[in-house]
Specification:
- With 134 residues, the chain is α+β, with helices and mostly antiparallel strands.
- The chain has a domain of 84 residues: Alpha-Beta Plaits (2-Layer Sandwich).
- The protein contains four helices and four strands.
- Strands 2-3-1-4 form a four-stranded antiparallel beta sheet.
- It is globular and about 55 Å long.
Amino acid sequence: MPKVNYKKLGINAMAWAVVRFLPATWGEYSEEQIREKVRQHRYIIWGCRIPESDATHILLYGFKDMKQMDKHFLRVQTKLSKIIEIKKIYHFSVEQILKDSPEGLFLTILDNKDFFTDKLFEGSNLINKKDSFF
């Protein structure tokens, strides 16, 4: 499965943003119109709608650098303050991406076997063996 090399594409900074489209926005736009606006946003790489009371979407953004990212989110805060509220931003360099592939998940589904995270740390003295639920 091909891996996207964000750095070679000029994307050096990324951010997970937890946002809330405000009630007035839902009065003016339908669910589908908001979805389409998210899909059309050029900085958004990935996004999903979540059923939470204090947030409506989790979005993954990509930027050429931190300056561009800061400029974008500061503009959202000031220009779009009646439309969208930024609840939390987790920003990072693309060099910090540890994994960007669903390959292991696909193999697990094809093998029809469960994967347990504790298997990654097998042999560690830190695993609580007697209180295991599984």
